[in-house]
Model the fold of this input.
Amino acid sequence: MASVYQRIAFLLLLGCTLAVPAKAQKEVLYYQYQFNPMAINPAYAGNRETMHLTAMFRRKMFNLAQGQGFRGGGASPVTQSLAIDGAVADAKIGLGLQALNDRMSTFSTTGIYASAAYWMNLPNDASLSVGATGGVSFLPVGDLLTVVNKAFPSVGFGVYYQSDTFFGGVSMPEFIAKEYQLAGRTLFKSARPLFVQLGTKLEPVEDLLLYPSVLVTQAQGRPLGTDFNAKAWYREKVGVGLSYRRNSLGFTPLSYLQISGEYQLTNPIRLGITYNTQTPEAPVNTFQRGVVELLFRYTPNLEGFTF
Done:
């Protein structure tokens, strides 16, 4: 019986995909920018100078047919992402690497992307960086009988500024326009978003740090997206965050809430969990709404607090 439901769901999903061009490639990484800013801006690479490793595991809360997924088996599909960055050459050069294994989007994506940034010191302990990213994404494309992994190049650029109380950047992490057609229908089209980020650091009372920020997203053929974010850290040990994301990138424009919690377990290890009230990378009516993400960050030589 479950296999019948799976086939019906697959046909419905295919119909949605043929009716609306799917815009999915690196979008899953973009959703994680609150924990990995390099995902939307390559100029962030090396910002924290010491090497940082951030791993995230993204999984849907509920699945079709009592735990049976479209691909069979008893577990929901899981998306994994890994980001590593640090600085060399007296902290003037930032280097980063990101890997993605997405199994939740309409077009499952596997990709690897490298980033490099050049950092310049400015007066009043401020700094400015320019960065670029390049890599490749592999997407399974084809018809119902034949599916092959097709490689799509990825190139992007960004600028980032930070001081003791302010941070912001402008970036386009996906600069190359990419499109895939089948039988005259566009099945895949890259979103190519432009991101503008502004934020500040506040310390209203001792031991409490606040990081409010806003992210504006503009992509061709999409309504203007706006994220309102707030994150608070107590004694640099416990962090909570709330984000309202309006017209988020994904299969279709979608608005949802993201709630997060983080805990600095030891000096080099941080753990976190995030709940998203919607699944932006999948069609709205695929029987699955909420998404849970687990965060693991490892910083072997942590020098000062980083949010």
